[in-house]
């Protein structure tokens, strides 16, 4: 996978991309990346990339020319049209299913804005996706892009090492993940559930599924609205709700 990030502050990404899973993924060759300062593409003699909004109002708006030219330049050799992602609080709420969708792409381009907003023509004629990581406003799109890139890259083949890790993550199955335990079996009087020490894989799998349902019911009931419950799971949740 190739990832290009358009930002006025590309130095913000250096620490994140040179650490932990992203560093490992890059060293493995799972993805390559480039940081592009779209100020370098402006035709304005003062290197400006923003201007006052038509009709008046507070703040400044990013002009279309530098961003259009930057995207055109970095995609000129692409054999397949990339997904161009605009980080924006007005975008679709980001989730694990979107991460899995983007992880299947060959080339992603992220546009990180600042100031009051983007010229609308960027939205209408350049981007393929608008993404929001939450109902709040950040100073710019850089932090949001870091979140999205991290969640996508960890899904690429070979990155996590254990291929079962990603499918078992919270939200991947539609439910929150079950509890985890490790050694020691008894820590200051707090015991690991006996079923996990039983060696009975069928019982362990059933326990994990029920715990996953329980945790989702207690913390994120909204996820159950779209989850295809079996008759057994419906019965179990009914009993849970009666307590």
Report the mean per-residue pLDDT as an integer.
93
Biggest sheet: strand arrangement: 2-1-6-5-8
State the helix count: 8
* Unreliable parts: none
Main sheet record:
5 strands, parallel
The secondary-structure class comes to: alpha/beta
Query: Helical residue percent?
Result: 25-40%
Distance between the termini: 48 Å
Q: What's the number of structural domains? A: 2
Overall CATH architecture of the largest domain: 3-Layer(aba) Sandwich
Report Rg: 23 Å
Overall form = elongated
**Total strands:** 10
According to CATH, the fold-level topology of the largest domain is Alpha/beta knot
Q: SSE order in H/E notation?
A: EHHEEEHEHEEHEHEEHH
Helices and strands in order, then pairings?
Blueprint: E1 2-6, H1 14-17, H2 20-28, E2 32-36, E3 50-51, E4 61-62, H3 64-74, E5 83-93, H4 96-102, E6 107-112, E7 117-118, H5 120-125, E8 129-132, H6 142-153, E9 186-187, E10 190-191, H7 201-219, H8 231-241
Parallel strand pairs: 1-2, 1-6, 4-7, 5-6, 5-8
Antiparallel strand pairs: 3-4, 9-10
